[in-house]
Design brief:
Organism: Niallia taxi
CATH architecture of the largest domain: Orthogonal Bundle
CATH class of the largest domain: Mainly Alpha
Distance between the termini: 16 Å
Structural class: alpha+beta
Keywords: DNA-binding, Transcription, Transcription regulation
Radius of gyration: 22 Å
Number of strands: 6
Number of helices: 9
Number of domains: 2
Order of helices and strands: HHEHHEEHHHEHHEE
Strand content: 5-15%
Domain HTH arsR-type: 1-92
Shape: elongated
Pfam families: DUF2087, HTH_5
Largest sheet: 3 strands, antiparallel
Protein name: DUF2087 domain-containing protein
Length: 191
């Protein structure tokens, strides 16, 4: 997840009225008129806030006959909360182990051949992440990569580009939206 998307998400939900709407939608779906009545606001005000929440995919709507009901997209809120927690985790977890530069260099030498190609993907997570960090360092921060362009880049290291590309997403090295890939800030990368 990109840092700017994380910031935009939290800026949008940072409004007290939007928090109240989210709180109500957490229990059950509501229509706009009912939300306006419950919160003591006008329908246009509710429409404005719901539009902002739809823009960040926190709410979605379903029509039932002539009434539109709004639902909370709980998975988006959970995902954003997890991303924020991961960004600010300062203490080492049980599986996080400090690796020296010498150890990392040794691991890279063991798995990357003289031709620069990856011999095989390490089974051990610690080694795997060191290799992925090595590979991803050649990508430019802030640049958007089309899937084919990213595949071509990965093929320089390993023929099974789909596996590596999937690992980049799983381990938060990159963010994907509509088959466009972008590097996440290094602080968000799996450790």
């Amino acid at each position: 997840m990109q840092l700017d998307r994380l910031v935009a998400f939290h800026k949008t939900i940072g409004d007290p009225t939007r928090i109240r709407i989210i709180s109500l939608l957490a229990a059950k779906p509501w229509n706009g008129q009912a939300l306006a009545g419950k919160l003591g606001l006008t329908a246009p005000t509710i429409t404005h806030h719901l539009k902002k929440l739809r823009e960040i995919n926190v709410v979605y709507e379903r029509r039932e006959k002539n009434t539109i009901y709004f639902y909370l997209n709980k998975s988006v809120i959970t995902h954003q909360a997890d991303a924020l927690i991961k960004l600010f985790q300062f203490e080492k977890g049980a599986d996080e182990v400090e690796v020296t530069n010498e150890e990392a260099a040794k691991i890279i030498d063991n798995f990357i051949g003289a031709d620069g190609k990856l011999k095989n993907i390490p089974a051990q997570r610690k080694k795997k992440l060191i290799i992925f960090r090595h590979i991803v360092k050649g990508l430019k921060e802030g640049k958007k990569y089309e899937e084919k362009e990213l595949n071509d880049y990965i093929k320089r290291y390993f023929d099974d580009y789909a596996t590596i590309r999937r690992e980049f997403i799983i381990n938060h090295f990159m963010y994907r939206e509509n088959n466009i890939y972008e590097l996440n800030p290094e602080e968000m990368w799996a450790k």
